[in-house]
Amino acid sequence: MARAEVGARGRGTGRRQMSARRVVDAAERLTADRGLQGWTIRQLAAELDVWPTVIYHHVGDREAVMDAVTERVVGRIPCPDVDTPWRDWFRTVLVEGRRVARCFPGVANRLVRRGPVVASALHFIDRGVEVLRRAGFGADAPAVFSLLLNGGFFLVAWEDENHRDPASYFRVMEVLCSFRGDLARPGLAAMGEYARHALPEELAAFHGPYHDLFVELLLDGAAARLAGRDRG
């Protein structure tokens, strides 16, 4: 009983040493370890040895804390200068964005599903759309920006989910692999041969090149759109 009272007093007095920065630091650590959806306000409070009300006082509710974590993570992604060639600009943002976001599972999904709700993401929109406008995309620039960024980060969110629930993912890959060597269905046979690279023993080396290929295909599509505008 005495021990419980000491713990309660410790949490009650912890508020004086607490700050919004410390709250977000702890939430960031939990996100790296468990994913953005893998912790609660109570668990965050326990990590800091404070009462949940202290979290609300310094940052806000869980949505506010998740926004603060997202702001931090997006802020780590390099945002190239506006004079960077458009393909290089988006390649850097998407490839480096995957590298950063994969360290904090769930952030990519939040960006795709909720949109750019944090200040650091707004900076990317402002610069990225202007890069496309200067490249000649004209009125298409906002739509092209949205498609490129949403596409790239959607794939990161898919990768996060595969790592969160690998059993479901590997079941699909195993089904596809079962068609390897199927001479009657050469398309499925080719897919089965490809899918074997996504099995557990090769998964770590699979997702990076897969994402890079996806990014290049997105950029090729945008380039084709730009070429069509030039011809028109």
Automatic annotation (TrEMBL):
**What is the name of the protein in this document?**
Transcriptional regulator, TetR family
> Which GO-annotated molecular functions does the record name?
DNA binding
Spell out the Pfam families in the cross-references. Answer: TetR_N (PF00440)
What does the record give as the DNA-binding region?
Answer: 40-59
Q: Where is the HTH tetR-type domain?
A: 17-77
Domain of life where this protein originates: Bacteria
Q: What InterPro entries has UniProt attached to this entry?
A: Homeodomain-like_sf, HTH_TetR, Tet_transcr_reg_TetR-rel_C_sf
Q: Which UniProt keywords apply?
A: DNA-binding
